């Protein structure tokens, strides 16, 4: 693909990819249903976890600058099977994430037109709740954003600059105007649902940070990855975390959590404090933000699909890049059509919980892959050290799951942590003390390895455990479908592809040897 992006483009892509439906829609939903005024703490918790994942992504994106993102990194370090399961979750995240943003777009568009909630959706009485509000506007938005993304990466970048700049302006207005109408009494009670509610909301709000992995997929189109990617990823995410916390706090101080609207929270909040005109400014800004999320999402998600198709885990037709535009059009169409089908039927609350499980699962695997990359090199690492690495990783993951499970069963308890937390700590310490790093990053690396990747594993698993069990049922069903596909189709396709490449390499070697013997 064409190398046309620098760090400035990536920072604005970061704003465009991340700031959208999460902050403008899920903030109200989670403040009302789970966290109350402590929604700002939920954003802090999910922001810390996301930043740990950003560090891991940045090292991979710099060291392996390919369009495949998570899939490429996991395939290199953990093999085809793990990469395929991650790929399935990436596909699921892409489809559901786009569907959720487009559904949110309709909600704020309704607010901009000053119409009643869900008035632009079609009620299907014969369908189950959560799937019975049909949304043709969401489908239209997805199609238009896909058409723009297929034209040119560079043109999409310019459009994203403009839209993101407008969005940042609206966000500054929301923060300043929100605090100017703040009432500290609305922060009482601060923890109406307890600490458990804070982390339950944090797990859902992780969706608000989820777009940053799209930046890693653009490494193949970045002019100078060692310099541009760290600045673009870490810089944009640091600013975004601060923005989210300030916006969440301003909303909580404008309205009591019981009065916050779950569809268009900020617009309704300004209307309630007497700033009716601000309702339209906020709705317009939210629409711009969600539009850029869809645009950048189309770019990053299509590159995921293209790289997966290159491995033949899905039909290679989806890997084709259009010779004129230099963009993966077929992959873009796959994501757009699938997202449109989901957006037409499925409500936001159903989509957001499943997205969070898939996103957190992939981020856990990326952190594990980083530790494997640092401590294992084939042909160099001894069998003894390889076994130690496997044992330490199992203990880190198992203890993290234990911490999460105990939290879910006894949020106010403490006895269980006396066993699980020390196991996590000493497993990480053991990896640091008994193993030597076999590979040092050439350009940019995660600091404090293995502590930061291990902490990333623990926090992501902890947030997964804070989700409701329905999300895991849907996640399990989707994973089972992926496994069936892999066993009957993906496994054979990748084997055939690898065998074909091996034959081509053998033929090339034979030709070179023949030419050397025969001479000029």
Automatic annotation (TrEMBL):
<keyword id="KW-0812">Transmembrane</keyword>
<feature type="transmembrane region" description="Helical">
    <location>
        <begin position="6"/>
        <end position="26"/>
    </location>
</feature>
<feature type="transmembrane region" description="Helical">
    <location>
        <begin position="158"/>
        <end position="178"/>
    </location>
</feature>
<feature type="transmembrane region" description="Helical">
    <location>
        <begin position="414"/>
        <end position="436"/>
    </location>
</feature>
<feature type="transmembrane region" description="Helical">
    <location>
        <begin position="471"/>
        <end position="491"/>
    </location>
</feature>
<dbReference type="GO" id="GO:0005886">
    <property type="term" value="C:plasma membrane"/>
</dbReference>
<feature type="transmembrane region" description="Helical">
    <location>
        <begin position="190"/>
        <end position="209"/>
    </location>
</feature>
<feature type="transmembrane region" description="Helical">
    <location>
        <begin position="229"/>
        <end position="249"/>
    </location>
</feature>
<dbReference type="InterPro" id="IPR002293">
    <property type="entry name" value="AA/rel_permease1"/>
</dbReference>
<dbReference type="GO" id="GO:0022857">
    <property type="term" value="F:transmembrane transporter activity"/>
</dbReference>
<feature type="transmembrane region" description="Helical">
    <location>
        <begin position="443"/>
        <end position="465"/>
    </location>
</feature>
<feature type="transmembrane region" description="Helical">
    <location>
        <begin position="389"/>
        <end position="408"/>
    </location>
</feature>
<feature type="transmembrane region" description="Helical">
    <location>
        <begin position="354"/>
        <end position="377"/>
    </location>
</feature>
<dbReference type="Pfam" id="PF13520">
    <property type="entry name" value="AA_permease_2"/>
</dbReference>
<keyword id="KW-0813">Transport</keyword>
<comment type="similarity">
    <text>Belongs to the amino acid-polyamine-organocation (APC) superfamily. Cationic amino acid transporter (CAT) (TC 2.A.3.3) family.</text>
</comment>
<keyword id="KW-1133">Transmembrane helix</keyword>
<dbReference type="InterPro" id="IPR029485">
    <property type="entry name" value="CAT_C"/>
</dbReference>
<feature type="transmembrane region" description="Helical">
    <location>
        <begin position="81"/>
        <end position="101"/>
    </location>
</feature>
<feature type="transmembrane region" description="Helical">
    <location>
        <begin position="38"/>
        <end position="61"/>
    </location>
</feature>
<protein>
    <recommendedName>
        <fullName>Cationic amino acid transporter C-terminal domain-containing protein</fullName>
    </recommendedName>
</protein>
<keyword id="KW-0029">Amino-acid transport</keyword>
<dbReference type="Pfam" id="PF13906">
    <property type="entry name" value="AA_permease_C"/>
</dbReference>
<dbReference type="GO" id="GO:0006865">
    <property type="term" value="P:amino acid transport"/>
</dbReference>
<feature type="transmembrane region" description="Helical">
    <location>
        <begin position="131"/>
        <end position="152"/>
    </location>
</feature>
<keyword id="KW-0472">Membrane</keyword>
<feature type="domain" description="Cationic amino acid transporter C-terminal">
    <location>
        <begin position="444"/>
        <end position="493"/>
    </location>
</feature>
């Amino acid at each position: 693909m064409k190398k046309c992006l620098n760090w400035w483009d990536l920072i604005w892509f970061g704003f465009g990819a991340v700031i959208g439906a999460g902050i403008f829609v899920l903030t109200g939903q989670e403040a009302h249903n789970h966290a109350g005024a402590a929604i700002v703490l939920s954003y802090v918790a999910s922001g810390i976890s996301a930043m740990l994942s950003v560090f891991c992504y940045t090292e991979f994106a710099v060291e392996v600058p390919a369009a495949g993102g998570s899939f490429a990194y996991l395939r290199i370090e953990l093999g085809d099977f793990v990469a395929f399961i991650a790929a399935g979750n990436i596909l699921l995240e892409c489809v559901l994430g786009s569907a959720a943003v487009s559904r949110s777009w309709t909600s704020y568009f309704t607010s901009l037109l000053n119409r009643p909630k869900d008035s632009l959706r079609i009620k299907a009485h014969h369908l189950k709740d959560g799937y019975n509000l049909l949304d043709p506007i969401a489908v239209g938005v997805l199609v238009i954003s896909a058409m723009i993304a297929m034209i040119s990466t560079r043109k999409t970048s310019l459009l994203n600059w403009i839209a993101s700049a407008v969005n940042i302006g609206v966000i500054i207005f929301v923060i300043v105007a929100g605090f100017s109408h703040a009432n500290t009494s609305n922060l009482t009670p601060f923890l109406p649902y307890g600490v458990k509610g804070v982390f339950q909301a944090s797990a859902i709000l992780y969706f608000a940070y989820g777009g940053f992995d799209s930046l890693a997929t653009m490494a193949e189109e970045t002019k100078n990855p060692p310099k541009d990617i760290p600045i673009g990823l870490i810089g944009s995410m640091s600013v975004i975390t601060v923005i989210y916390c300030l916006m969440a706090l301003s909303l909580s101080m404008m309205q009591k959590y019981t009065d916050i609207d779950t569809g268009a929270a900020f617009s309704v909040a300004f209307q309630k404090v007497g700033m009716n005109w601000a309702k339209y400014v906020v709705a317009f800004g939210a629409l711009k933000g969600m539009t850029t999320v869809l645009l950048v999402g189309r770019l990053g998600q299509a590159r995921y699909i293209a790289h997966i198709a290159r491995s033949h885990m899905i039909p290679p037709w989806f890997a084709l890049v259009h010779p004129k535009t230099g963009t993966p059009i077929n992959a873009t169409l796959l994501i757009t059509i699938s997202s449109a089908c989901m957006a037409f039927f499925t409500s936001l609350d159903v989509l957001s919980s499943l997205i969070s499980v898939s996103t957190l699962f992939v981020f856990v695997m990326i952190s594990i892959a980083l530790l494997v990359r640092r401590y294992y090199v084939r042909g160099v690492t001894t069998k003894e050290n390889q076994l130690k690495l496997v044992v330490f990783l199992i203990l880190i993951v198992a203890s993290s799951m234990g911490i999460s499970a105990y939290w879910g069963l006894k949020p106010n308890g403490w006895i269980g942590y006396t066993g699980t937390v020390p196991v996590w700590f000493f497993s990480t310490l053991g990896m640091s003390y008994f193993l030597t790093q076999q590979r040092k990053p050439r350009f940019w690396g995660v600091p404090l390895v293995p502590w930061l990747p291990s902490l990333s594993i623990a926090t992501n698993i902890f947030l997964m455990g804070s989700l409701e069990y329905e999300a895991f049922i849907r996640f399990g069903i989707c994973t089972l479908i992926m496994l069936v596909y892999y066993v009957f189709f993906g496994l054979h396709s990748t084997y055939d592809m690898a065998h074909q490449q091996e034959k081509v390499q053998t033929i090339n070697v034979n030709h070179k040897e023949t030419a050397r013997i025969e001479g000029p």
